[in-house]
Design goal:
This protein is mainly alpha-helical. It is built from four helices and no strands.
């Protein structure tokens, strides 16, 4: 197989099933199928046993993209902005109320 070419799912399945069914070693499988590195076969076998045959057909090369977060629908964004504004106003109101209560308590202490 040319360098950089991914192995097909069928090829991976054939190699793993040959290793499992015919009890051949990883080194024998490497020579028989022209694979460099036993770790590939071990990885395929682990995937085959853990996730099933279908998992061998999934391309797992490269890093997963974190990508940009999905944009919110316009209405949801507006709702969140409105809620954020309401909560800010509520916090300001509570701060002022707390200040008034504290001031009133201080005045009551002075009069006693």
């Amino acid at each position: 197989m040319p360098k950089g070419q991914p192995f097909s799912g069928e090829f991976k399945q054939h190699v793993v099933e040959d290793v499992l069914n015919n009890h051949i070693s990883y080194n024998e499988a490497m020579k028989k199928y022209g694979i460099k590195g036993r770790s590939k076969i071990q990885q395929w076998e682990r995937i085959y046993l853990a996730e099933g045959v279908e998992a061998l057909y999934v391309d797992r090369r490269g890093r997963k993209s974190t990508g940009r977060p999905a944009k919110l629908p316009k209405q949801a964004e507006e709702d969140l902005l409105a809620e954020n504004q309401r909560l800010r106003m509520e916090i300001e109101y509570l701060k002022k109320l707390n200040a008034l209560v504290s001031k009133e308590e201080q005045q009551n202490r002075k009069h006693k």
